[in-house]
From TrEMBL:
Belongs to the bacterial diacylglycerol kinase family. It is an enzyme of class 2 (transferase). It is found in: Cell membrane. One of its GO terms (molecular function) is kinase activity. It is a multi-pass membrane protein. Its EC number is 2.7.1.-. This is Diacylglycerol kinase family protein. Keywords: ATP-binding, Cell membrane, Kinase, Lipid biosynthesis, Lipid metabolism, Membrane, Nucleotide-binding, Phospholipid biosynthesis, Phospholipid metabolism, Transferase, Transmembrane, Transmembrane helix. The chain crosses the membrane at residues 29-46, 52-71, 92-116. PROSITE patterns: DAGK_PROKAR.
Amino acid sequence: MKKGKLLKSFQYAFLGIAFCLRSERNMQIHAAATVVVLLMGTYVRVTKMEWLVLLLTIGGVWSLEMVNTALEKTVDLITAERHPFAKIAKDAAAGAVLVFSCIAVAIGLVIFIPYLW
Ligand SMILES: Nc1ncnc2c1ncn2[C@@H]1O[C@H](COP(=O)(O)OP(=O)(O)OP(=O)(O)O)[C@@H](O)[C@H]1O
């Protein structure tokens, strides 16, 4: 890939992240939660291994939320009609985000509760 093309692909990826942050309420919630977790992690001085788990979890939630947005937009582009498959696609993607978010909260509790106790 040429240097210009590589730079452009990064630019498009950042535009995608910026769009999700601007327009998706859930993404803004994830961003706020991320700031809180990073501040708390710094404050209580979590271990290197705990940082790795937290960062991986944060990355997973953000990535999954953006894939969810991509899927929602694709479904909306394919059909403006109500369709059971469109509902399944959107609901399953939203379910995937919910599953990972619940796990993320559980991981946060397991890591932070012993420090705050
Ligand atoms: N084309 C569709 N066919 C059937 N069900 C749909 C369709 N689009 C959305 N739904 C259902 O509505 C839920 C919410 O969808 P979505 O988040 O896209 O919001 P919306 O219905 O387009 O309204 P809004 O844009 O105000 O949030 C989906 O999870 C799904 O259950």
